[in-house]
Design brief:
Length: about 200
């Protein structure tokens, strides 16, 4: 019996966040009490600690693994197979839920946590993901700069940092020093909408 498809960026039941003590570091924001050089990205943002044990336990399709998601976004890898995402002169390929009625010009200037995709994996992802089966669209983004992170925000309190809201925070936002990241975020610009069924492989 064939194994069900599990996207590269999906997390597994053996990859729960590692419990860590969050402290406030004056002039820095939040930090781990036992922080190492591997806990922050190149922008100095703190990330959730997560074991790396893909294909062990049960897949969690709706959750992404922070490090694999970040790697796919940084390197523009397909979120399903981890090969390079499809790229033409019209831009890099993304597979998204269709929300064209959200605003005129959608999805221009939209932030995304979903990494891009390769053309081969478009029909596979559309077939296996319930949300995409209901409403899927492919777009090419000619520019797609790294914008910031999707993160748990904290605030100071007498007993130490306490969690507040989860939100997308730009790297240029001063509050990012109070963020613990789960996903890297890109900003889609100069977009062209395509029909997934007519996508040339």
């Amino acid at each position: 019996m064939p194994q069900p498809l599990v996207p590269y960026v999906s997390s597994w039941s053996t990859e729960d966040f590692i419990p860590s003590v969050i402290v406030e570091r004056p002039g820095v924001g939040i930090a781990y009490a036992d922080e190492t050089v591997f806990d922050r990205d190149s922008h100095g943002v703190l990330w959730y600690r997560t074991p790396h044990s893909p294909h062990q336990g049960r897949p969690r399709y709706s959750n992404t693994h922070p490090q694999r998601q970040r790697r796919a976004m940084q390197r523009l890898l397909c979120q399903v197979c981890a090969n390079p995402a499809d790229h033409t002169t019209d831009g890099v390929l993304w597979l998204l839920q269709d929300h064209r009625t959200d605003w005129p010009g959608w999805p221009n200037n939209m932030t995304v946590t979903e990494p891009p995709i390769c053309a081969t994996c478009v029909p596979i992802a559309t077939r296996h993901c319930p949300a995409l089966r209901r409403s899927a669209i492919t777009i090419r983004a000619r520019t797609h700069p790294i914008h910031g992170v999707n993160a748990q925000l904290y605030k100071a309190s007498p007993r130490g940092p306490v969690p507040t809201t989860k939100d997308i925070v730009a790297y240029t936002d001063p509050t990012i020093r109070w963020a613990r990241a789960t996903d890297l975020v890109r900003l889609l610009r100069h977009c062209t909408i395509l029909d997934p069924s007519t996508l040339t492989r």
